[in-house]
Write a structure and sequence with these properties.
46% of the residues lie in helices and 10% in strands. It is mostly helical. A hairpin with a 6-residue loop joins strand 1 and strand 2. The longest helix has 20 residues. The radius of gyration is 29 Å and the shape is elongated.
């Protein structure tokens, strides 16, 4: 019969060091020894209690791994393995590189397990007070303070970075989950629903290629820069009324898309003005390439149409909202959007709420008080 153990763990001294050491057993019964790197007995006792608690919660290995890895080391690993194409778009990788530079400057040598939600909030508050520096031919020029949306983007990148660390069992929990952003970010993640009258006004003021883009996205939900503008002519099948998407943001995005009659007319119109090159939306600056940026044309078109600015990507959200408002089940809308996660549909619920409010404004509160002359009986 094995001898019963009197203690779960002990704090003790070793002759060759001034630091306190701890000894305990893991869940398998194996004995573990490690230095506390402190000369304070109370701190050593605290570390022993944390080790025993982690052992009892079955997260001891997670804690030990995270203690050995600094945020700077993990950021470099994340950028190399989870940020570059094909895992993420090149544009997303460039954003991650920019954000990682600031994050490593603030938390670089800190261990993953040492970073707390309070420290992240202090970092965000400090970033909100920073000013933008623009490099010119005459040197750096100081601009205004950073926008809250820019700082919030840094929080999102850090949150994803640490989420991967949690998934890889390097952290017990993501400290970003407890972070409250210091300021309200107006309009963030609130897509704009384009009404039919707005769309007609935009189309009347848009150049031909942009008018076709508006019609195609609102009828198919294609992603503007990842799927639509790189489209080649041979990917459009007018006989079967489909368009083939060979490359997309997600694996579910690679698919054959059915076309509505309006979408077919827009594709035919674009074919007539696209020239002899292989691309459906050829670049004005590079005949052998395709359009890669529509921001200037889009902003000027909205201004001419008298429509407040919104992102061109919101046309895809409008496509989903119109499907939902037409009675299409949410599961089918998710399939038509070619999204792998149905949670993405949450961001369209706000627009559906707006449409419901518009319907409520048409309520006739005097419907039961109409006179008999109008052809409707009065309800007593």
């Amino acid at each position: 019969m094995p001898r019963s153990r009197k203690y779960d763990g002990v704090v003790y001294r070793r002759k060759e060091t001034s630091f306190w050491w701890i000894r305990y057993r893991d869940r398998s019964g194996a004995r573990r020894r490690e230095s506390t790197f402190t000369q304070d007995w109370q701190e050593a006792q605290q570390l022993l209690r944390e080790r025993l608690q982690a052992r009892d919660s079955n997260v001891l290995d997670v804690v030990r791994k995270g203690e050995k890895l600094s945020l700077e080391q993990w950021a470099d690993f994340f950028l190399e393995n989870y940020s570059k194409p094909p895992m993420r778009a090149e544009k997303t990788h460039q954003v991650n590189l920019r954000v990682a530079k600031h994050i490593k400057g603030a938390f670089g040598p800190r261990k993953l397990v040492e970073i707390t939600a309070d420290e992240i909030e202090l970092y965000l508050r400090d970033r909100l007070r920073k000013t933008v520096r623009v490099r010119t031919a005459l040197g750096y020029r100081q601009m205004g303070v950073l926008k809250p949306t820019t700082v919030h983007q840094e929080l999102r990148v850090l949150r994803r970075m640490l989420n991967v660390a949690v998934r890889k069992k390097l952290l017990q929990a993501n400290p970003c989950w407890g972070v409250e952003f210091p300021v309200a970010v107006r309009g963030l993640f609130r897509p704009h629903y384009v009404t039919w009258s707005e769309q007609r006004r935009i189309e009347s003021q848009a150049p031909p290629h942009l008018r076709n883009i508006v019609q195609i996205i609102t009828e198919t939900g294609l992603r503007v820069y990842k799927e639509l503008t790189p489209l080649r002519k041979d990917q459009v099948d007018f006989v079967n009324a489909t368009v083939w998407i060979p490359d997309s943001k997600t694996p579910n995005g690679i698919a054959e898309i059915p076309l509505t009659p309006l979408a077919i007319e827009a594709f035919k119109s674009q074919m007539l003005i696209s020239g002899i090159g292989p691309f459906l939306f050829p670049s004005d600056k590079n005949p052998s390439g395709h359009h890669k940026n529509l921001k200037t044309a889009w902003r000027k078109t909205l201004k001419r149409a008298g429509v407040p600015y919104f992102r061109i990507y919101d046309l895809r959200s409008t496509y989903a909202t119109r499907l939902s408002a037409g009675g299409v089940a949410d599961e089918w809308v998710t399939q038509l959007l070619r999204q792998g996660d149905a949670k993405v549909f949450k961001k369209y619920s706000q627009m559906k709420l707006q449409m419901k409010r518009e319907a409520l404004e048409k309520m006739n509160r005097q419907a039961n008080e109409m006179s008999l002359d109008s052809g409707t009986a009065t309800i007593q």
